[in-house]
Specification:
19 helices, alpha+beta, three-stranded antiparallel beta sheet, 44% helix, five-stranded antiparallel beta sheet
Length: 491
């Protein structure tokens, strides 16, 4: 969504949006203009007695009775006290940006000069750098956008990309099932708010950490709203409607086709062969025209296809033109690349008609993954020893050791190994619920007997023992924190 707006003919931006608009270093992922640095530069600008034309210092502004006024040093001390903006407090970014003052903005031309001053393009001191691009339409969930725009009533930010309807949250249920398993809700909310960017791995998935945080947050909130739920509890749609409406989410329930894993593999093979589905799903950047063709059931690499003239069994040229126009408008409003999964989420959110092949493909992929998980979890002979069962659970990674810094605590290390194993099976980041379920399976099977003692089902936890032999409880909240730290530190 476009975050900039016009003030007296100049483009402006909420100060809270600055870190997201400027972005991060390509390789280190270090935020280029974090909140602590913004406030530090703003203090320098306040200390300057007069506004210096073309100064690289970033000055903050506010509205007062329809007038634009610079934020003074006294006001800055009041709304952004120095002790709240230390460098070590810049992470997590969504929290530190929320501490920046609401209703305060910067001018884009001044931000451009400040960024070029801080990170000059060209070669300097043996360091070569390209011009830092300012992306005023960062791909962020609605709740984050609202937080960045807090305090802006007039003028309102540009409404070109504004959501006109609630975002769809999609629950896939078994055939003839009408209730939603409680243990799926928090993870589905997190995936809807922070969708995976690709199907093939997570090393470049910017949303992985935020997704883990969101899953933990909503798991806790749902537990408070619905305490003491028994194992295997299922919600009705009505049970969840109020909670999801508060998140601007609208429930969409779909049923998986009653099919075998073999039939699902055939479906995947068919769409991979005819539409190149696997290739398109694994690209980091798919163009609007390619997306519109795929969503109408055409392969963009097939020169014989003319979506402006040809119809399919479900879509018409008008559907293609409508898709293309909306997707191009969103693409023109911001320069960031999007994957097919991201574009698909946008099409669903906006209620655009598209061919059902892509839903059928996703359904088949999910069925094959579920089949593989069942083979892994339950396929070992009963006579297997715990060590053999553990070997059957091992992941076929190039390196069986998880990347990044591993936790010092033994149970935390097991959680990371479980997450790495699940990631290898599912080709996406593991959720905290999946990790805890696998750890409970290990505990019940007798795997890792030197660490795991037993599962604690009612608390979604495991009991483990320290090096000194003391018993401890490792619950799903601790698991989520472990995974969050590991995702930040992993290579």
């Amino acid at each position: 969504m476009e975050l900039s707006f016009s003030v007296n003919g100049r483009e402006a931006l909420p100060v809270r949006a600055v870190p997201w608009v400027v972005g991060a270093e390509a390789f280190t992922r270090k935020i280029l203009l974090p909140p602590s640095l913004i406030v530090q530069i703003a203090r320098l600008a306040c200390d300057a007695k007069d506004t210096i034309p073309c100064s690289p210092l970033l000055r903050l502004y506010r509205y007062d009775k329809d007038r634009v006024l610079p934020v003074t040093s006294e006001r800055l001390d009041a709304i952004a006290p120095e002790h709240d903006f230390q460098e070590e407090a810049d992470e997590p970014l969504r929290e530190s940006t929320s501490r920046l003052p609401a209703g305060v903005f910067v001018f884009l031309d001044e931000l451009r000069r400040c960024v070029d001053w801080q990170y000059p393009p060209g070669c300097h001191d043996e360091v070569c750098r390209d011009l830092v691009a300012l992306n005023t339409s960062p791909d962020l969930p609605d709740e984050m956008i609202e937080r960045l725009q807090e305090g802006f009533v007039a003028p309102r930010p540009n409404a070109a990309g504004e959501r006109s309807r609630p975002r769809k949250i999609l629950f896939w249920l078994a055939p003839n099932e009408i209730l939603i398993p409680a243990d799926q809700v928090a993870g589905t909310i997190a995936e809807t708010l922070y969708p995976p960017l690709l199907r093939d791995g997570t090393s470049n998935d910017r949303n992985a950490v935020e997704r883990l945080k969101a899953e933990r947050e909503h798991s806790q909130k749902l537990s408070e709203k619905h305490p003491n739920l028994p194992d295997g509890y299922k919600f009705s749609v009505a049970d969840l409607s109020d909670y999801l409406e508060g998140l601007s989410l609208e429930i969409d329930v779909r049923h998986r086709s009653p099919t075998s894993v073999g039939a699902a593999q055939g479906t995947i093979g068919w769409f991979d062969a005819t539409l190149g589905a696997a290739i398109w799903f694994n690209l980091h950047a798919v163009k609007p025209q390619e997306v519109a063709m795929l969503l109408c059931g055409f392969n963009p690499h097939d020169n014989k296809c003319d979506p402006l003239a040809d119809s399919t069994d479900e879509t018409s040229p008008d559907d293609y033109k409508r898709l293309l126009r909306v997707l191009e408008d969103i693409s023109d409003a911001g320069s960031q690349p999007r994957t097919l999964l991201q574009w698909l989420a946008i099409a669903r959110d906006k209620g655009l008609k598209y061919h059902s092949w892509i839903d059928e493909y996703e359904n088949a992929v999910a069925l094959v993954r579920e089949g593989n998980e069942q083979n892994v979890s339950y396929g070992a002979p009963e006579s297997d020893s715990p060590q053999e069962k553990q070997a059957n659970l091992s992941v076929d990674h190039n390196d069986s050791t998880p990347p990044g810094k591993l936790p010092n605590v033994a149970c935390g290390r097991l959680a990371v190994f479980a997450a790495w194993e699940i990631e290898g099976k599912k080709q996406r980041a593991a959720t905290q619920g999946e990790v805890m379920e696998l750890m409970q399976t290990w505990a019940d099977d007798g795997s890792h007997p030197h660490t795991l003692m037993k599962s604690v089902k009612d608390k979604r936890a495991v009991e483990w023992k320290t090096k000194s032999g003391k018993s401890r409880i490792y619950d799903i909240e601790a698991c989520g924190k472990t995974l969050e730290t590991w995702m930040k530190n992993r290579a």
